[in-house]
């Protein structure tokens, strides 16, 4: 059986899916037609129900829970993994709380914030921390640092490997939104998950969950096995940064969510619903029997 599968070219995803798509494990008869896209493009594809299996942001998942069920394996949750707000000048947290900054001419205005997508979990965390920071521009996540440096935006909301590179470009951290969430809730940050289309037979959904877990476990047991595949999708990244990225985003929650992971996801959605960021979810989020 061939299924369409979407995930990002980022090292954490290529690390997780390498064994699955290259048949280093038993895929129980499943074959995959793979699409590589940034997370917001994957979110949009999920809104349209285009893919059988896909990575998406947890924020976006709230809007497609009627179409997709969350698999227990493959997720990116954790502590110290959150998005950062950065700038090339000193901007205080109180400035963002008020939704105002002073430019070089001492003129007060709303800061323009470059975000990696409206439906990313990063944008949810930004809205949760700074509800008055509403002047946002959507950009591909890899373009945000340059947008700040070129003055196209005042503040950048960065994710993925950019948290390892922004300082090398002379950019400054305003706040770690992940740290803010952790102090507020005591829970891990649910960033992205792997979902299966509810139109698939339930036995296929469970098969997907099994083979995905085997793929993650294989990757942990053989961390260099997918090196060339991972590198081929991270051309501008050093091997050191690649594996820092993997170590940050692939952990025990990627093998299985467990009680803690499910609690963190439920808290994210409860908070988002309370703040009117998402619609009410009527479906069971997690893959069930």
Helices and strands in order, then pairings?
Blueprint: E1 2-7, H1 11-21, E2 31-36, H2 39-47, E3 53-57, H3 58-64, E4 68-70, E5 76-78, E6 84-87, H4 93-98, E7 101-102, E8 108-109, E9 113-115, H5 121-129, E10 136-138, H6 144-149, E11 155-158, E12 172-176, H7 177-185, E13 189-197, H8 202-221, H9 227-232, H10 239-249, H11 252-255, H12 258-274
Parallel strand pairs: 1-2, 1-3, 9-10, 9-11
Antiparallel strand pairs: 3-13, 4-13, 5-13, 6-11, 6-12, 7-8
Helix pairs in contact: 1-8, 1-10, 5-7
The CATH topology of the largest domain, please? D-Maltodextrin-Binding Protein, domain 2
User: What does the average pLDDT come to?
Assistant: 91
Number of strands: 13
CATH class of the largest domain: Alpha Beta
Oligomer: single chain
Identify the overall geometry: globular
Our count of helices gives: 12
How many separate domains? 2
Q: Which regions are unreliable across 5 or more consecutive residues at pLDDT < 50? A: none
Distance between the termini: 21 Å
